[in-house]
Design brief:
Helix Hairpins, 6 domains, OB fold (Dihydrolipoamide Acetyltransferase, E2P), single chain, alpha+beta, D-amino Acid Aminotransferase, Chain A, domain 1, 24 strands
């Protein structure tokens, strides 16, 4: 069954079916949980399915469904209540599961805002209440409306029910003319136990947990029933405001408290990530004694101006994250270590485990990252797991946390057999026998076989036909594997796809239409789909080639810079020696760098790869990049370099704006540079620009220039 297979083992057709299955299950579970307050899946089961959905979407981003659970907040509202359109959407939160995730969250904040490590960014931290979200709208100090989150855009009108909650004031003083207070309706453990006891005594419905009890109680058609239920409310956020509550998150919460709302006493402001994590541990240690359910800690950027700048993703704010409490762990036997070879030749070790249940899922495989991880060291040689290596036959600890792919975290060497021997990472590829190479500073080992390696060849072909590349209808991963193994009409390289029809016509004995799964119509459709993709955009072609380090974004970057296949091909040819003008120009592209540049040049000067590319191009009509309309732009066609600290916008914002106006953004100063935009702290680039006579302007001058 698909549900029992790893997402990485699914082909495109199977992934479509599995995403459809998961969407049906998870959307139904959302309705059960949010609309009916009667979940059929446990939290662990739900989380596992959602993580599986996320992993498949990460592997096949082009297959994300319009009804994907990852795009939704909550669930549709019940028809039993009238609708309330939220003037400010009620979103969910992204999740962190490790200290590293929190550190990365803080780093992402700094990077997005263009802040230095020395710049102070404060955060608030508060317990994540496991209850039901509620929005309370006050006009001129009077409660006029209460609504559930619903699907984030439309909620249920539960005003009469909310008025019965003791923690919800009917009137507030010294408040803005319009203020929508948001928080969580919950039930204490003691009240939950008493409610279930009373329900059982009279033969009524009992609840599985306090969250279900709180949600079911708030969403009663008869508010008199809600009134009998011991509901509580913590305020921690807001929606629409006629005027700001404060300048910071922490002070705004204090303002809500002054209105008469209950706010969580464990809310704190922190200046450092280490302080946030220490507070997380403090809350976690009190979890069992709080008297109500929490499932993590929520961190938010404290400065509300910074929150505004950070904004939102599709379903979550960038300025907040929920640090969930630890996932389940399990021990099992590491039965063997196998090597998987990817399309770029990357050799990934995988642990084959004696099946064990971790967090409600049976796990039989886990990633081992790379050779260093197996040996018990990081890429710089520093010990991990206190230097304990991993060996076949070991008793190991498996964890899932927020990770979709299970990992081996530790090993119990006290149970290691006396005959155990260290694992030796292969020196030759298990698929083709080619030498294994590992470049200095790279943690990954690679098969050097290139297209002669069947594992690389077939994975490159799968990549070539993927949605973001050529996206040929009817030619997915499953069909690629079939044609790759075919004797009469093989597809061994991309050009073979476009010669398939001619080869089929010239083969009187083994027609494609006579194969299992094919017929006259399906063959005609396949050939038609292939021929439609003979005309291809330059960025898609560059990405489709599957060159190491060159992703979708990089493909678009290179296409914009070179504008045509001829320019790109000639430049890669001229950069053969990794020196000279063509090499310098490639490295000067902002976002390329020496590693990607080296991979590009190597690909075009590996004889087998270059010939395969030339055979492919002979079958295609590659479209030049259409330059944007930059009429009236003072920077169109100019090469611009940004240096120093930009104070009015981030580097990413500046680069995007410059390119939209027809400028080329370079990462280094050269004789081709037309303009250097220098912020505070400009150093060597500014000196070089001066020596070359390059015009230097300030960020303010740049803003004036692009606005005129």
């Amino acid at each position: 069954m698909l549900a029992q297979r790893k997402p990485s083992e699914l082909d495109k057709v199977e992934a479509i079916a599995e995403l459809a299955r998961l969407a049906e299950i998870l959307n139904a579970a959302n309705t059960d949980y949010h609309t009916h307050d009667a979940p059929k899946l446990s939290d662990a089961e739900y989380d596992d399915l959602k993580r599986r959905n996320a992993e498949i979407e990460a592997l096949f981003p082009d297959l994300k469904r319009d009804d994907s659970p990852s795009l939704k907040v909550g669930a549709p509202i019940s028809s039993a209540f009238s609708k309330v359109e939220h003037s400010v959407r009620m979103l969910s939160l992204g999740n962190a599961f490790t200290d590293e995730d929190v550190t990365e969250f803080a780093a992402r904040i700094r990077k997005y805002l263009g802040l230095r490590n020395t710049d102070s960014v404060a955060f608030t931290a508060e317990p994540k209440i496991d209850g039901l979200s509620l929005a309370l709208r006050y006009e001129n100090g009077t409660l006029v409306q209460a609504a559930t989150r619903g699907d984030g855009q439309t909620g249920e009108n539960v005003t009469l029910n909310a008025r019965t909650i003791s923690d919800v004031p009917h009137h507030i003083k010294d408040a803005p003319a319009v203020v929508e207070v948001r928080g969580e309706v919950y039930m204490s453990h003691a009240d939950f136990d008493a409610l279930n006891a009373a329900q059982e005594a009279k033969g009524g419905k009992t609840f599985a947990n306090p969250r279900n009890a709180a949600a079911g109680s708030l969403r009663q058609i008869n508010p008199e029933i809600t009134k009998e239920r011991p509901l509580l409310f913590f305020a921690y956020a807001w929606g629409e405001l006629s005027e700001p509550l404060a300048e910071t998150q922490f002070d705004a919460i204090e303002r809500l408290k002054s209105f008469g709302f209950s706010t969580n006493p464990l809310t704190r402001r922190h200046e450092t990530v280490s302080s946030m994590l220490a507070h997380y541990q403090e809350i976690e240690s009190q979890r069992a004694t709080l008297g109500y359910d929490i499932d993590g800690v929520v961190y938010k950027v404290d400065d509300l101006t910074l929150q505004s700048r950070l904004g939102f993703r599709a379903t979550t704010p960038r300025w907040a994250i929920a640090h969930k409490f630890p996932a389940e762990l399990a021990y099992t036997t590491l039965e063997s270590i196998e090597i998987q070879v990817g399309r770029t030749g990357a050799m990934s070790p995988v642990a084959r485990l004696k099946p064990v249940t971790v967090g409600g899922v049976v796990v039989s495989n886990a990633t081992l990252h790379n050779a260093d991880y197996i040996a018990g060291v990081d890429s710089k040689g520093a010990p991990i797991r206190e230097g304990r290596d991993l060996r076949e036959g070991d008793w190991v600890e498996i964890y899932r946390a927020g990770d979709v792919i299970p990992k081996v975290r530790d090993v119990d060497i006290t149970k290691r057999a006396a005959t155990s021997v260290p694992y030796t990472f292969p020196k030759t590829c298990p698929e083709c026998g080619s030498d294994v190479v590992r470049e200095e500073g790279d943690s990954v080992a690679y098969c050097s076989g290139g297209l002669i390696c069947p594992a690389q060849a077939v994975e490159k072909l799968k990549h070539f036909v993927s949605r973001s590349a050529f996206d040929i209808d009817g030619l997915g991963a499953k069909q690629i594997e079939m044609f790759f193994a075919d004797v009469d009409l093989p597809i061994k390289e991309p050009a073979d796809i476009f010669t398939l029809q001619a080869r089929d016509a010239a083969n009187p004995l083994a027609k494609l239409k006579n194969r299992n799964g094919f017929g006259d119509t399906s063959v005609d459709n396949l050939f038609s789909a292939i021929n439609e993709k003979r005309t291809i955009a330059l960025n898609r072609l560059i990405f489709a080639l599957g060159i190491r380090h060159v992703g979708e974004t990089s493909g678009a970057l290179l296409a914009r810079h070179y504008s045509s296949w001829t320019n790109f091909f000639d430049a890669m040819t001229a950069a053969k020696d990794k020196s000279g003008p063509a090499w310098d120009d490639l490295n000067d592209i902002d976002g390329v760098g020496s590693v990607m540049a080296g991979a590009l040049v190597d690909a075009f000067h590996t004889d087998s790869t270059r010939k395969a590319i030339e055979r492919l191009i002979a079958e295609l009509d590659v479209q030049d990049v259409v330059a944007p309309d930059t009429s009236g732009s003072d920077v169109a066609g100019k090469t611009v370099v940004f240096t120093g600290t930009l104070e009015k916008m981030t580097r990413a914002e500046a680069k995007s704006r410059a390119e939209a106006l027809g400028a080329k953004v370079s990462g280094s100063v050269s004789g081709k540079t037309d303009l250097l935009v220098a912020g505070p702290g400009a150093g060597s680039k500014a000196k070089k620009a001066q020596s070359l006579g390059v015009k230097i302007i300030s960020e303010d001058d740049w803003l004036v220039l692009i606005e005129t």
